[in-house]
UniProtKB/TrEMBL annotation:
<keyword id="KW-0963">Cytoplasm</keyword>
<dbReference type="Pfam" id="PF13083">
    <property type="entry name" value="KH_KhpA-B"/>
</dbReference>
<comment type="subunit">
    <text>Forms a complex with KhpB.</text>
</comment>
<dbReference type="InterPro" id="IPR020627">
    <property type="entry name" value="KhpA"/>
</dbReference>
<dbReference type="InterPro" id="IPR015946">
    <property type="entry name" value="KH_dom-like_a/b"/>
</dbReference>
<comment type="function">
    <text>A probable RNA chaperone. Forms a complex with KhpB which binds to cellular RNA and controls its expression. Plays a role in peptidoglycan (PG) homeostasis and cell length regulation.</text>
</comment>
<dbReference type="InterPro" id="IPR009019">
    <property type="entry name" value="KH_sf_prok-type"/>
</dbReference>
<keyword id="KW-0143">Chaperone</keyword>
<dbReference type="GO" id="GO:0071555">
    <property type="term" value="P:cell wall organization"/>
</dbReference>
<keyword id="KW-0694">RNA-binding</keyword>
<keyword id="KW-0961">Cell wall biogenesis/degradation</keyword>
<protein>
    <recommendedName>
        <fullName>RNA-binding protein KhpA</fullName>
    </recommendedName>
</protein>
<dbReference type="GO" id="GO:0009252">
    <property type="term" value="P:peptidoglycan biosynthetic process"/>
</dbReference>
<dbReference type="GO" id="GO:0003723">
    <property type="term" value="F:RNA binding"/>
</dbReference>
<dbReference type="GO" id="GO:0008360">
    <property type="term" value="P:regulation of cell shape"/>
</dbReference>
<keyword id="KW-0133">Cell shape</keyword>
<dbReference type="GO" id="GO:0005737">
    <property type="term" value="C:cytoplasm"/>
</dbReference>
Length: 77
């Protein structure tokens, strides 16, 4: 569910939504989402001073708190 949430948000931000790649790494109590976008779209996902990335992470942790798991978003370049 968290992967779909991140994908939906990021698709609306970037110019090349077909180049979005999200890798899910499941752990015992946590999940890591590795997000890759085109280099030209990286700034749109991170935002000024990281504000957009922080907002996405806040939404993600709120969504994951219902299941009692910890979800981390890593934006890779």
């Amino acid at each position: 569910m968290e992967k779909e949430l991140v994908e939906h948000i990021v698709r609306s931000l970037v110019e090349n939504p077909e180049k979005i790649d999200i890798n899910v790494i499941e752990g015992e109590k946590s999940t890591i989402l590795e997000l890759r976008v085109m280099e030209s779209d990286l700034g749109k996902v991170i935002g000024k001073h990281g504000r957009i990335a922080k907002a996405i992470r806040t939404l993600l942790s709120a969504s994951a708190s219902r299941t009692g798991r910890r979800v981390t978003l890593e934006i890779l370049d």
